[in-house]
Design brief:
The chain has 302 residues and is an all-alpha fold. It has ten helices and no strands. It has helices spanning 11-35, 39-58, 65-101, 106-132, 135-153, 160-183, 187-206, 212-244, 250-278, 283-299. It starts with 10 loop residues before the first helix and ends with a helix.
Amino acid sequence: MAYRFNGDRSLRHSVRRIARELLVECRGELPLARQRPTDEAIHRLRRKLRKLRALLRLIRPVISDDAYCNENRCFQFAGRRLASVRDAAVRQQMLHDLIGSVELPASERLELDALLQSWDNQKNAGYESLIGEAAFVEIDQLLVASQARVREWSSVPDRWRTIGRGLKATFTRARSRRSAVAESPTIPAIHNWRKEMRCLHLQLQLIQFLDPAIVKRLAAKADQINKQLGAARDFSLLQSAIFDAGELSPSLRERLDLAIRAEVARSLQTACELGDRFLAPTPARFCRDLKSLWTARRQQPS
């Protein structure tokens, strides 16, 4: 489901409604994830948690530090509890896709089939561990507590600065993370830039009421960069996993390494080219353009 602010209602109403809807939906995903964990169920839950964090970061400058820290800690902890099994699923899928694009002899395909089966067993063990550790119950308890606090932290002023300062902060961090990647394109640097672009994409989705055509295009451009960075980061993690896979022959590891390096370079180059264009405006200019849309929207007769 797409979450959008309602331009005909106050920001407080929209923030409160979306936070409550997301929390209800997160809790609704938990029984299925607990009874029969699947890659898709975990992915859906983590996506909703990311949307909650993006909403929270959007209004961070106008809520108390305690409120922000409490909710962010809750959503971040819940997401991290599920990160390992999600990364394992992504690793499997990336290798499966790569196998389909590389010509390999039958003997090496058998090696990779065995590796995929080994990774699948590890992932399933991770699911069992989450269940055994009552992780889903713990996450549900955190979300219940957060539901009780929504009314308090969602009482935000109905003015541009409520969202403008948060957008500016996210855009500023995205530019800073882009510079860090230019200096040293490590996995952590790529991942940090990706997180900011993903957050900016989600925040722009929230405020499409300003001008659906313009803001939707901005959100789509941010998402393009996010996806390219995600591919670069995921391939980099796959590269590390392949390097550590002692059951693969050296020649196969070398062939896969070359293929993965090419994919990482391609995705990262595309992300950098798109990012340099998207992030070219100063944060002040980026937000000034959006503020003009806010002003025009608020001046429209209701």
